[in-house]
Amino acid sequence: EMHSQYERVGADVTMKCGSMDWDAAVTWTVNGTDIDESHLNGSYLILKNVNLTQTGPYSCYEGSSWHLKYQTYLRVGTPPKEPVLMCRSNNYPKGFYCSWHLPTPTYIPNSFNISVIHGTKEMVCEKDAVPKNRCHIRYLQLFSTVKYKVTLTVTNALGKNFTTLTFDEFAIVKPDPPESVVAKPVPNNPRRLEVSWQNPSSWPDPESFPLKFFLRYRPLILDQWQHVELSDGTSHTITDAYAGKEYIIQVAAKDNDIGTWSDWSVAVHATPWTEEPKHLTTEAQITETTSASTSSFMAPPTTKICDKGAMVGSGAVAVCWTAGLVVAAYSVLFI
Amino acid sequence: DSWGIFTFLCAALCNLPALPALNCSEELGPGQSIQQTYDLTRYLEHQLRTLAGTYLNYLGPPFNEPDFNPPRLARAERVPSATVDLDLWRGLTDNARLAANYRAYSRLLCYLRVLDGQVGTAELRHRLAHFCASLQGLVLSIGGVMSSLGYPLPAGPPAPPGAPLASNDFLKKMDDFWLLKELQTWLWRSAKDFNRLKKRVPPAVVTLRLEARGF
């Protein structure tokens, strides 16, 4: 029969060989390896100042017959330190979750017990399968004046510890970061980037509980971020980007009225549109257009001179008009 | 007799919310009024943070301790609580939603005004007076929204409840503590109430109302 024992790191451990007399002749092994007689006091095994490496199976055999007299599994560990507990509502107004961990490992099995008290009522926090060390609660009532008190107790064979959190319903609201952040250059606009994103999927009711957003962006080559706060909408156009520089962009979300900002979203990279070296091509196309008009009365096919996107920026408009006038002039001449 | 004075004060001070707010709201469509009311609740929430801090310090420990979490004593509810079942809250009609806010703030205003008459320091009196003025504005604003949507204003606040005034100093302070808590919670709730109303009031309503008045 394999016994089991737990001991603290640094403790002195005395193992008895079952019911054998103190002066009996025995051999102790650990993990199948004989232990030197210097560690024995009669038939007792003395381990001083135990450390983690001494965890393992210990066996005691009678001297001559080599009968197995006693077996025990020693686990060296520590009693739990005060656990770290965090509670958060990323799905307001549905409820909240709490998650916890130990600041340092104990090296032996621990069990956790969580209790949630709201006023005089005890609520049940349902443990999640994945991840472990997490449980969730559904709100029965909204806009409560009474605080929630969450107590987490951790117990193991060497001791126990606990921690408590007390909070208002509103204080723990923190959405997940926005999802599907996309940043695209805007054609023919060398200083613009179009950013769009979606509400985090964990936020159940953006209609009644709208989110506001915080956008930050900077060119990779600089350290200083620029910030924009947006009270609605899930898109924004940056209009002051440095031409030709790659940007890094992130978005965060917050309930419009309560709680704290989410963590930053995954970063996206984008570079504003840059004009391809087309100056020569543009003039050549005007010449082509006019010579085409001499042979046919048809308007030239849409060229890049007159892109719809090029309506912004006076330079592009001027080229557009010029081409149009030239075409019109030649067409009239040949009617 | 302090109870008699209390009754008199409350009755006198609480007749004000019955004023119709038509003068203000006729110029604004209900959509804009709702936005204004929402903005007012946010402003008041901000103001309350400073006011509550000062007032709780005036009450002294344990009321000004951040972890102070007393059980709710089984005393008569003076103010309708903001706490509500989630599905019930979602299902409120616009009228019911607005009326709940109107009633709550009318009564909260009433109690705050009584408080104003009792506090010791001049600074606190000044802050309370300023807050009461803003809260009065909120009540009128909500009234304005209700009128512009054609809803009747709820009847004025009922006579003060039968529960006797706090019998000792500590219980009185507890009452003040819960009054501030209730006010804070209502302001948080109102932001959500008005968010919902913002989405539900169609712009078309504005034109209809103007036509009805012969503009």
UniProtKB/TrEMBL annotation, chain A:
Topology in the lipid bilayer: Lipid-anchor; GPI-anchor
GO CC annotations on file: ciliary neurotrophic factor receptor complex; CNTFR-CLCF1 complex; external side of plasma membrane
Record-annotated Fibronectin type-III domain positions: 177-277
UniProt xrefs under PROSITE patterns: FN3, HEMATOPO_REC_L_F3, IG_LIKE
Record-linked Pfam families: fn3
Location within or outside the cell: Cell membrane
Keywords: Cell membrane, Disulfide bond, Glycoprotein, GPI-anchor, Immunoglobulin domain, Lipoprotein, Membrane, Receptor, Repeat, Signal, Transmembrane, Transmembrane helix
Family the entry assigns: Belongs to the type I cytokine receptor family. Type 3 subfamily.
Name of the protein this chain belongs to: Ciliary neurotrophic factor receptor subunit alpha
TrEMBL record, chain B:
Gene3D superfamilies: 1.20.1250.10
Protein known as: Cardiotrophin-like cytokine factor 1
GO molecular function, one term: cytokine activity
Protein family according to the UniProt entry: Belongs to the IL-6 superfamily.
Keyword Transferase tagged: no
Localization annotation: Secreted
Signal peptide: 1-21
Gene name for this UniProt entry: Clcf1
Subunit structure: Forms a heteromeric complex with cardiotrophin-like cytokine CRLF1/CLF-1; the CRLF1-CLCF1 complex is a ligand for the ciliary neurotrophic factor receptor/CNTFR. The CRLF1-CLCF1 heterodimer binds SORL1 (via N-terminal ectodomain); within this complex, the interaction is mediated predominantly by the CRLF1 moiety. The tripartite signaling complex formed by CRLF1, CLCF1 and CNTFR also binds SORL1.
Source species of the chain: Formicarius rufipectus
Keyword vocabulary terms for this entry: Cytokine, Glycoprotein, Secreted, Signal
One CC-aspect GO term: CNTFR-CLCF1 complex
The keyword Plastid is annotated on this UniProt entry: no
GO term, biological process aspect, one: positive regulation of B cell proliferation
Function: In complex with CRLF1, forms a heterodimeric neurotropic cytokine that plays a crucial role during neuronal development. Also stimulates B-cells. Binds to and activates the ILST/gp130 receptor.
Pfam families recorded: PRF
